[in-house]
Amino acid sequence: MAVDMEELKQKILEFATKKAKHKSKMYIKDLYKADPNAKPREVKKAANQLVQEGKLEFFSSGSTTMYGVPGFGKSEEDQFGKLEE
Amino acid sequence: MADVKKHDTPKVDELKSGPWPSFVDDIEQKGLSGKQACLDLLGQLELSYTHKETHWKHGGIVGVFGYGGGVIGRYSDAPEKFPAVAHFHTIRVNQPASKFYNTAYLRKLCDMWDHRGSGMTNLHGSTGDMVLLGTTTDQLEPVFYDLTHQMGVDLGGSGSNLRTPSCCIGKARCEWSCLDTQAICYDLTQTYQDELHRPAFPYKFKFKVSGCPNDCVAAIARSCCSIIGTWKDDIRIDQEAVKAYIGGELKPNGGSHSDRDWGPFDIQKEVIDLCPTKCMWMEGDELKIDNRECTRCMHCINVMPDALRPGTDTGATILVGAKAPILEGAQMSTLAIPFIRMEPPYDEFKEFVDKIWDWWMEEGKNRERFGELIQRQSLQEFIRRAELKPIPQMVKEPRSNPYVFWSEDEVEGGWKRDIKEFRARHAA
Known about the structure:
Chain A is an alpha+beta fold. Chain A is built from four helices and three strands; from the N terminus they run H-E-H-H-E-E-H. In chain A, a hairpin with a 4-residue loop joins strand 2 and strand 3. Chain B is of the alpha+beta class. Chain B folds into three domains: 10-150, Alpha-Beta Plaits, CATH 3.30.70.2500; 166-232 and 313-408, 2-Layer Sandwich (Sulfite Reductase Hemoprotein, domain 1), CATH 3.30.413.10; 236-309, Alpha-Beta Plaits, CATH 3.30.70.20. Chain B is built from 15 helices and 15 strands.
């Protein structure tokens, strides 16, 4: 049975926000736990839609990509400093 | 000339003293023409040589809207000393299949990068992308806009995505190619746009396409899924050309290695004795091949290209799981499908890809390459999930493991035995 995408997105967002309090970056595999009944491809699709909506954000090391919740963990500016104009 | 500041870089300058052209010269020249980032990069390199540690930090949230790959964040950890490389992000640009460019495109790309970035490029990265080295976060969207709207190219893959598929020169220039490598590469790139730009996997995944078993893109050593051209029928032999090679009228190896006198061409020593399966012999002045035994090593074809050619009933061999040595050492691809037709729309191949991706997405650990999943869960499990039939060619080494593991449903009666009935025939 196809999952309801909006419902899945809500579950992922709740799961990620809860987890982000302890660990600000998570792998796509961690997000599978948000809904054990959803297929990996559906979770990936929902997570990517959440990124488009600005509710999640990507963190890429170059070799691996992780997901974060905006506002949790160090911001780009905190970590790397603001570029002088 | 723009006002630029050159750092004192005695250690880095040593690299200019060797016999070969040095990247230091190139970067310095670019810097002195007005790019402070190039001079700051050399200054930071000098500092790294002094401290014997890197001064780059990499990774971050940087990217372009809607994409989870293609941009790799990089920052200096000594921004006060080297402000022009405080932000120094890398952008991967998806190369056209077989890397065919025209000069107008390259000129436009370089002009854009001079304007929006450091002006430094790397053609090409290991995966094949054009690599634009060094820009600031605020330039990422304008660069992306220029690439996609003015130059008609896209970002390549990075992170836990499908990486930019790459292919050899193929039928465009190579008469040995058994596949239209460019068509396959382009089709895979378009079909898997979502996987290329939005992270879907536990780690990176690479497709590489070689037109023949010479494997010029080293697909067998570098890609999670290698597509290598092959043929089903017989090697085509032109017996007159064979005689011409033996008689010295045609130069072996297409005239390569001719800077030294190797003596007259000896077909026995240079071709027949080197055949790994010993499937070639001479009958009088005719070359014979037992094609059933040929392993497609390509040696005879490479040595005598005018006399021997791959067959005409062509397709691909699919291998999976190559990787570089991070865990468990380097690994070459393992054979999955000995022969598959590779004709558009490549449905049979794509069905195979869907199955192995489903397995990897479900079972792969974080940062586990596809080849490592096969290593961890067994080739047997791979075969089961890919719905393939086991064949002898999948065996890595004969008799390295004397046990055959059957699953219960493959054995008549399963694992349950009537012990009394057994003991009636066998004393305890």
